[in-house]
């Protein structure tokens, strides 16, 4: 294969793969944010902290209790989902009728609390998490080696993201969720427990973040700051895709991951800011985001 603009094809493809993996994390995290904002109208700044907690739970399960990766891939999101349910029932539900700023400040405080707690026990240097044996090694595609774990991350993320979109946009349950946020009294008249539905929705949203955290654990060093390092980019993804747009978050997350990967090849100095440049351009042209609804 010939070079592309002086770049070896193997280097280009490897960066695209890395971008697709990063895009998978962006898609999952922004999806959780979009679900929570779109259905509950809450800007959940604690999303990055829940992502971090999910990764740490996987590490703690393996380190202290020898619970393997696949069990924690299910258990960690459930545990974080329970945390989310408690947070919603005890704090967030009193803020729904107030300005968005109150929910943002509350969840920001929760983020600082969780980060401080984990920093006091584990510091900030990071903890390694080995790739599970079943997903070790790589596929030989002829023109490049594709690590099995990175392929698994992309496939698992797409399955979860598309399944979530289908449930919310194409099923009766999703219709109840959307109707319950727009006209709760009408939905309650049909015998639907709207407060419980809202609570479970928040729990599910943060469980998505924890699922992404477990997926990320073997790829990056697990540290208390891993969520803070990512959440600003994820908020930018949500803004570009359109606040509350489920499919917009998925497509934008994956697309921006690929754009980042290409930028690292052709102009590495811009890779850390390209997402924010795109966000500024999109907001100037279409303030509601690429997939958002204009008011």
Please tell me about this protein's structure:
The protein has 11 helices and 2 strands; from the N terminus they run H-H-H-H-E-E-H-H-H-H-H-H-H. Strand 1 and strand 2 form a beta hairpin. The longest helix has 32 residues, at 9-40. The radius of gyration is 19 Å and the shape is globular. Helix content is 70%, strand content 2%. The protein starts with 8 loop residues before the first helix and ends in a 10-residue tail after the last helix. Strands 1-2 form a two-stranded antiparallel sheet. The model has no long low-confidence stretch (mean pLDDT 90). Helix 1 packs parallel to helix 5, helix 2 packs parallel to helix 4 (100-122) and helix 3 (69-90) runs antiparallel to helix 8. The chain has a single domain (9-285), classed as Orthogonal Bundle (ABC transporter involved in vitamin B12 uptake, BtuC), CATH 1.10.3470. It is mainly alpha-helical.
